[in-house]
């Protein structure tokens, strides 16, 4: 099916038709402002996320959709820079899996979902020490920090990072979201985090609420 409209490209992103999406981006760069193209791509990834949330799509589709979106934005970047345009961002989120934990699939999904929704995401990867989170919040002025832990042996590190942010004098200016298989709202309350994200879509809703965006 040829891509003839923004609605078509939304569907193409959802159907993971990478070659067609990237070819469409190249064609559209000759016809319209790069920000308009980026908005259409973001709408596609947001719709893919909605299908993941309601059970029609699964983790592999969400990951592949995020990769297509990233490649498309990479194609747009020179035109965005040349025009002096910038993608509108709702805020900055620092994401990472805590020290001692090497599982990063869940936080990668959250990162992709947040980026598609218009957040600047600084993904620190896995096995991230408290001082690295503190340094990145200081460097970026992030509004939200996302802390992932999959193991019971590493969940205490989420509490240590909350404490480290407080000790650095940053706690009043940054909101903290926790997630991972071992986390829940009670644990978030116990360690002084602001919210718990059960999955990528729930995390997006929580981050929006934390920065004051109506969901």
Which class best fits the helix and strand makeup?
Answer: alpha/beta
Q: What's the total number of strands?
A: 5
Helix content: 55-70%
> What would the CATH topology of the largest domain be?
Rossmann fold
Q: Overall pLDDT, averaged? A: 91
Shape: globular
What quaternary form is this? Answer: single chain
Beta-strand portion reads 5-15%
Low-confidence stretches: none
Radius of gyration: 18 Å
By CATH, the superfamily of the largest domain comes out as: Cobalamin-binding domain
What's the CATH architecture of the largest domain? 3-Layer(aba) Sandwich
Report the biggest beta sheet as strand number plus sense, adding barrel if it closes: 5 strands, parallel
Outline the structure in words.
It is a single chain. With 215 residues, the chain is an alpha/beta fold. The chain folds into two domains: 6-83, Methyltransferase, Methionine Synthase (B12-binding Domains), Chain A, domain 1; 92-210, Cobalamin-binding domain (Rossmann fold). The chain is built from nine helices and five strands. It has helices at 6-14, 18-28, 34-53, 59-83, 105-116, 130-140, 155-167, 185-191, 200-210; strands at residues 92-97, 120-123, 144-148, 175-179, 195-196. The protein has a five-stranded parallel β-sheet with strand order 2-1-3-4-5, sandwiched between helices. Strand 3, helix 7 and strand 4 (175-179) form a beta-alpha-beta unit. Helix 2 runs parallel beside helix 4 (59-83), helix 3 runs antiparallel to helix 4 (59-83) and helix 5 crosses helix 9. The radius of gyration is 18 Å and the shape is globular. The mean pLDDT is 91.
């Amino acid at each position: 099916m040829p891509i003839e409209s923004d609605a078509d490209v939304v569907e193409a992103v959802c159907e993971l038709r990478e070659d067609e999406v990237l070819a469409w981006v190249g064609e559209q760069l000759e016809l319209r402002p790069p920000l308009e193209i980026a908005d259409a791509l973001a709408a596609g990834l947001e719709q893919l996320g909605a299908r993941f949330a309601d059970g029609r799509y699964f983790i592999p589709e969400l990951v592949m959709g995020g990769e297509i979106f990233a490649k498309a934005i990479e194609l747009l970047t020179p035109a965005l820079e040349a025009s002096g345009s910038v993608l509108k961002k709702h805020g900055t989120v620092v994401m990472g899996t805590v020290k001692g934990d090497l599982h990063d699939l869940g936080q990668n999904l959250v990162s992709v979902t947040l980026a598609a929704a218009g957040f600047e995401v600084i993904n620190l990867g896995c096995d991230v020490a408290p001082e690295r989170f503190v340094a990145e919040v200081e460097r970026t002025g992030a509004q939200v920090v996302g802390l992932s832990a999959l193991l019971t042996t590493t969940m205490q590190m989420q509490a240590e990072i909350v404490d480290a942010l407080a000790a650095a004098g940053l706690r009043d200016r940054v909101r903290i979201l926790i997630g991972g298989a071992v986390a829940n709202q009670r644990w978030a309350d116990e360690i002084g985090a602001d919210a718990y994200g059960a999955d990528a879509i729930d995390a997006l809703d929580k981050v929006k609420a934390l920065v004051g965006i109506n969901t």
